[in-house]
């Protein structure tokens, strides 16, 4: 495999106070030995993430952005709690080392975890892979999602990590509120969605851990591509409806090919990328129950609505001058297109009476 996998690019940005950070790491991470150097990963629009290199090895630091933040956004503490609960189960996540809630150390709350050795596929089309490899990679992805949804969250110590019911209702309320708090313009499609989603939501059938942002570029694979070494970026994780999690991943099959996760029109025997129907069937086999997935469009509309809420937050932070990613201005400008796509899925939905 070649041409589409690798590690994330880094930026030589110095915005952490090394002396205080080094002292904190020495006090809180067993075996840590400085001195340290660091670089900032170029990817990520939400929580700034850094590669820490020290005499004792390499680590990853994730922190909240500096400046004023939206309520409940950038949930670094929740990420750490989730990783600490999942790592002992054997599920593929990075080992968390320590959480720092003292903002005087680097200027915001952060946590430190292990640096996982592996590679990330940035282009969902997998141009550097052959047919058999593509099939194996996508089945591995959906298998690990099904495995997550089968974990007993209560026995894993996550009974209080989220409310057990009404996930979709709470999510629609949350992202409506987040959108309003960061709103910069009036978009008719958004207003129609805010009215339509609460009136048409399907009934939740199961309650599980949900990742919230499960996609191919949030996965660290072994270098041979055969297994997932770590599922990354748990900021949006909670206890909720696994079909929302599955649909967020499957929406890539109806998203235009864009050099990222979009797969519309390129799945099937000719490419080795499983079809949408094959992925739904595989997931059903893994969780031991076939799901009625005849109409995914409501979930796709919801996924796009949530995406526009996140993207609107990026746009707001860009305008306020505290955005994390280098492409925040371009990302934020996509809000109207995301809203249009969400409403198009809503119009295709067969609402159950």
UniProtKB/TrEMBL annotation:
Record keyword Kinase present: yes
Source domain of life: Bacteria
Residue intervals of the Aminoglycoside phosphotransferase domain: 38-270
Pfam hit, one: APH
Name of the protein described by the UniProt record: Aminoglycoside phosphotransferase (APT) family kinase protein
GO MF: kinase activity
Record keywords: Kinase, Transferase
Keyword Transferase recorded: yes
Gene3D superfamilies in the cross-refs: 3.90.1200.10, Phosphorylase Kinase, domain 1
Coiled coil, from the record: none
CDD domains xref list: ACAD10_11_N-like
């Amino acid at each position: 495999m070649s041409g589409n996998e690798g590690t994330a690019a880094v930026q030589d940005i110095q915005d952490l106070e090394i002396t205080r950070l080094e002292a904190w790491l020495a006090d809180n991470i067993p075996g840590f030995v400085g001195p340290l150097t660091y670089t900032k990963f170029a990817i990520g629009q939400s929580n700034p993430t850094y590669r820490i290199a020290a005499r004792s090895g390499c680590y990853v630091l994730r922190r909240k952005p500096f400046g004023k933040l939206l309520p409940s956004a950038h949930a670094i503490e929740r990420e750490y709690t989730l990783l600490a609960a999942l790592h002992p189960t054997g599920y593929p996540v990075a080992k968390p080392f320590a959480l720092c809630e003292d903002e005087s150390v680097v200027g915001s709350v952060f946590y430190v975890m292990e640096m996982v050795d592996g590679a990330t596929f940035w282009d969902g089309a997998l141009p550097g892979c052959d047919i058999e490899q593509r099939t194996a990679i996508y089945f591995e992805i959906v298998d690990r999602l099904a495995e997550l949804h089968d974990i007993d969250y209560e026995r894993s110590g996550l009974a209080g990590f989220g409310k057990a019911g009404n996930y979709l209702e709470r999510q629609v309320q949350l992202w409506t509120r987040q959108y309003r708090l960061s709103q910069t313009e009036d978009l008719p499609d958004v207003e129609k969605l805010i009215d339509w989603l609460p009136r048409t939501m399907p009934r939740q059938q199961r309650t599980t851990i949900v990742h919230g942002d499960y996609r191919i570029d949030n996965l660290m694979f072994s270098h041979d591509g055969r297994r997932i070494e770590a599922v990354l970026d748990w900021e949006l994780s909670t206890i909720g409806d696994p079909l929302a999690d599955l649909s967020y991943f499957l929406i890539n099959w109806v998203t235009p090919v864009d050099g990222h996760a979009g797969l519309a029109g390129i799945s099937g025997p000719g490419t080795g990328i499983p079809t949408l129907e094959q992925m739904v069937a595989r997931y059903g086999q893994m969780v031991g129950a076939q799901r009625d997935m005849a109409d995914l469009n409501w979930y796709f509309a919801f996924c796009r609505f949530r995406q526009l809420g996140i993207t609107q937050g990026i746009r707001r932070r860009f305008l306020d001058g505290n955005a994390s990613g280098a492409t925040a201005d371009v990302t934020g400008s996509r809000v109207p297109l995301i809203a249009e796509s969400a409403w198009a899925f809503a119009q295709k939905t067969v609402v159950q009476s």
